[in-house]
Amino acid sequence: MATRTCTLQIGIVSLKVNRPIHLVSSLSTMNVSQTIETEEDLLPCLHVKLYHPQQSSNSLYGLIPLGKRSKHPAEDPLRLGRDGQACTVALLDTRVSRKQLAIQAYYTPRSRDMLFRIQNLSQRAQLSVNSSALDYLEVVDLPDKALIRFGQYEMLIIRESGEAKASFEVEFEVLTVPPSRETCTCEPSVTPVSDTE
């Protein structure tokens, strides 16, 4: 079997080899992390305002980082419940389901805004999103301002737009009055779903 001699000229040095040489140009590899860093300058943020009628006498929010923004990867659902290992956000309350709800970020082909949807993960209780009641595993899009209710908990979630694609921020705070008073939605926290809806 005949071998071919290839001559490679590098500067003033010539190399002779008995097999082809494959060169990889350092210019062909791009550093994509630079574009990601510039996109991450302004992160979308979910402002979550919590209320429970017994929050002053119980440390329900002891595991939640209150008053500061925490970064969350957009591809992972943000889960809330009492199980600190299965959920991103844990409530210290045995009446809360192990996994109560999940918030998932997503995009549509027609919009550059990061949008969110919420899913009920509890098999025991309905989840109320504004005036819609969700049963187990049912999902609905989150509007820019949404009142979420389960059990005696009320959460007002406000979406702040951003330009980042890969992550978003969440900021929790505690309200002293129920947000349903502010939003004038005073129906019960769990509304049964009728057959006509």
TrEMBL record:
Keywords: Cytoplasm, Immunity, Innate immunity. It is found in: Cytoplasm. One of its GO terms (cellular component) is cytoplasm. Its main location: cytoplasm. The keyword S-adenosyl-L-methionine does not apply. Residues 78-139 form the FHA domain. InterPro entries: FHA_dom, SMAD_FHA_dom_sf, TIFA. SUPFAM superfamilies: SMAD/FHA domain. It comes from the Eukaryota. GO terms for biological process: innate immune response; positive regulation of canonical NF-kappaB signal transduction. Pfam families: FHA. Belongs to the TIFA family. This is TRAF-interacting protein with FHA domain-containing protein A. It comes from Notothenia coriiceps (black rockcod).
